[in-house]
Amino acid sequence: MRKWIGTILIVLCSWLTAFNQIKTDSSADLENDEPTTYFLEHRGCKTVVRIPVYAYVYVPVMKEPVKMVEPAKPQRIPFLQVHGNVMYNVNYYSNIDTPFNEQHVYQHTIQTYLDITVKGQYPMRVYLTNRFSNSNLFRNFSDLNLNYNNTQFTQKIKTQVREKFLASLPSPKVPDSLQHELDLAIKKLKMLEGWIKNPGLIQKMVEERERKMRDSLKGKMDSTFRLPTVEVPAVKDSLLARLDLDSNSIYQQYTLKKQQADSLRNRVVVLQQMIKTAKGQTQEAIRKVCSDIEQAKSPAKLKEIMADHHIGDSILPKGYKTLMAIRSFGIGRSVVNYSELSAKNISVNGFQAEYNPDAYYAVATGSVDYRFRDFIVKGPKQSGQYLTVLRYGRGLKDGNNIIFTWFGGRRQLYNAGTVDTSQGPSQPVAVQTPSSALMGFTLEGTCRLTKNIMLTAEVAKSSYPVYALDSAGKSSLPSQMLEMSNRHNEAYSLKADGFFPKTQTTVRGTFKRLGANFQSFSTFTDGSAQTAWSAHVQQLFFKRQLTLTLGANTNDFSNPFIGSQYKSTTVFKSVQATWRRAKWPVVSVGYFPSSQITKLGDGQYQENLFYTLTGNVTHSYNVRQLMMNSSLVYTQFYNRSTDSGFVYFNTKNLLLSQSFFLQQLTLQANASGAFNQDYKLYTLEGRALYNINKYISLGAGIKYNRQTVFNIDQLGYSAETTLQIPKLGQIQFSADKGFIPGMNKQLVPNNTGRATYFKTF
After folding, report:
1. Which of 476, 485, 512, 535 is the most core-located residue (most Cβ within 10 A)?
2. How many domains does the chain have?
3. pTM of the entire structure?
4. Where would one find the signal peptide in this protein (predicted)?
């Protein structure tokens, strides 16, 4: 029993020792802390004891040992990072649609697209395309294109600068913590001012002061209660100086509290200024700086923004100014789109680069496919084409600038056919399109009148076509180009672009005047003077819900396939209106020119232009949580039988389509009718697509055709499937038994098929 009592006493003593230690520590900390106020307690007639009052309860904090954390190792960036995709596609046609007549055509396409990043900073892009076919109509070609991805690099630089700017702003927690400290300081200041201005305290101070003065003057007065012969002010100052106020004096408490209040007032002013500074960068100002960074068009402008906001460029990759100034760089197949009178939308297989820090430099050279249409339709036997373009200017390409362009090379003449004499006597005679060497220069200037209004003017002069040379033919290309007395080889161009925010109006217009002997890689030369213009207006109405677009233009002589009956005085008009409103159907109506290429003979084609009227209504909606889509489309061709071999000339077409989306199942039903002066064609079609799981989907359809006058009923069908194989890629198959227009205005069977392999990595 004694043993247990001894143990309990030892434990109690340990507890008491620990409690006293904590109390001692707490008392020591309390002594070092400033009390909120004091409570005065009277003990006896002349005894006053100050009891400190704290507005909080002190809680001792036990500091935890600091854990040493090793800094994270920087992530290793590989020298090359490659992402992209590879695709193989094969198409099969049992018949080619009119006006081309071929059967059992296979067309294979192999394409690889790669995004390559060097050292995690420098992006490049590679395209490799190979297309081959057993058709005589389609060109076989292989293309390799390696280009520097300026857009991706510039966007990455701007993103880094924007993130650095946002990181330099005060943290959102800083104003909150400052505001919390300010609130506490104001609260404490109010408590002190309340204590200082307390009437009872002031009365106590007066009484205490009077008592002290009486005690200090006692014994210094004579029996007649007269003051010594000392001046009153001096006595008063002496008395105040010799006031023996100890730490328990109310007057000293008052003075101390007043000093604390003054200090808090200064602290409140400082905190208010700090909060104002922290909140000085408003959201609007931040958005403006971010917008300026995003819209910076040159390294110099970006550097200026960085300097204004004290952002260092150490975070940016080496040579970023030079790489941002490289607007384009390509080896292999690329597009040259420089100016209206030199080279515009030309497909070049060679080298092309643009560099624009402050001055502007550009170079392009290589062989030419005159237009992109040459990828689709083979022309007659043609001589080779090539170009070389050199450009130099001052200013930014998409800002105010003046640019000089020199171009030269060889191009085809579509208005002068010759017989190919290289053909053997037993071989059919072929028409060859001759070529002509050319050389020229242009001077182009761009002026931004306002942020939204821009004017571009260009003048040009070139050498003569081969058929316009003098009989001696001794004149060199430079001498022809610089012959200032001849005005037939000159050209002029004017473009205007404007946007008016108040009325939400967009206006574009062009005017072009070409001399009879002017030639370049932008226009089709026909041996006559040419004048072309175009105008385009887009207007938004009813709070951007209605978009109305109007356009008019003359023949721009950029397409050699257009029929010769279309002169420069022919005006092509277009109008389109689109209505969009939330939860309403989208309605669109348009009237504009269309075209169709017609095969006239072996290696001869003609493109006919005619007007088309279209109107469609599309609406997506839910019915009892079932997603649906409805479409109504009307089309009318205003062409003639002489314009086209297309059987649907001058035809009205009406299509109604309804789709249902039932989770994994998609259903579609179509009904259409085509009506012209000779017959009516009615079509009904149903399709279904079912996603079995995320790897497999199956689809099938059936189509019924009814053609009047000929009393022909035809039934077609289709099927498709998609296989998603992990780590291998996606494989798609589709087959369709349908019908296309044939001779004698009847539909003939046509089978098509497609197989595609696609892999992203």
Report:
1. 512
2. 3
3. 0.70
4. 1-20
